[in-house]
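Weekly modeling sync, notes
Attendees: S.R. (lead), two postdocs, one rotation student

Agenda item 3: backlog of single-chain predictions. S.R. asked that every request posted to the team notebook include the full sequence so nobody has to chase files. The rotation student volunteered to paste the first one in as an example of the format we agreed on. Action items at the bottom.

Example entry:
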Amino acid sequence: MSHDHHHHHGHDHHHHEVTYGRAFAVGIVLNSVFIVIEVVYGMMANSSALLADAGHNLTDVLSLAFAWGALWLGSRKPGGRFTYGFRRTTILVSLLNALLIFVAVIIIGYEAVENLITISPVAGNTVMIVAAIGIVINGITAWMFFHGQKKDLNVKGAYLHMMADAAVSLGVVIAGLVIKLTGAFWIDPVISFAIIIAIVWGTWRLFTESVNLALDAVPSGIRLEEVREYLLSVKGVEGVHDLHIWAMSTTLNALTVHLVCPMGNDDKMMEEIRGQLHDRFSIEHTTIQIETSTDHMAYHQDCGE
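Predicted structure, as returned to the notebook:
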């Protein structure tokens, strides 16, 4: 049964990759084309908001490419010294992704400050049209990722980015309108600062979550104490120690634990525990060590574990 279950999971992963493959490809192409348009027209219209938006979109294309690569690497078979396969790359990638975004923010910020100091005319019409195209493109891309965002940190990153982008483009459209109506050109760099704040805000969460996973912290969706309580509630389990839960990748969680079972254990009980950990806590890989003697347990309690 346990073998069967793993087989099913592997199959599931492949399907995962295929479904998003198309979404990633389309997203990357659409957004790359759009970035070129934004940079060209941003220069022509003298709009730092358009350039900031282009920067924002560039971070997205990078994150899409990274996430796609990570999904692909995550699905390779383990081999040689890499007994876990390359699943951990998904975590490293979302970390790298966050760092790159911070770099982009600094560059955009510099541009915006320059534009604030020397306020110069901005072509409102161009800004509005280009940003409106951005809403459509980001909207389409976000919609393609909508289904997968609950399952995978990288796909979630891509989805959130696209949604943020659509919102940012909307802000730029409004800025273009206000500039056109009032002739207040300073609005343009101000909008780019707003975009920067939005980028940093979103990326910080991605960054901290990635760092946590890289340091083998318990993934944010799982409560360690709840798992401990569940294990203690199983009939025949007298004690629980050396409980570790960590993320093998942005989609796969693992657990190792020692259970003290004075009466011994049977396969049925193990199967039940594995099934519950998978269904209730979405932990795919469990390694359970059973100890029958209780003296070990007493020792652990003295140690305050």
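Discussion: group reviewed the output briefly. Confidence is low (pLDDT under 50) at residues 1-15.
Action items: rotation student to repeat for the remaining queue; S.R. to check formatting next week.
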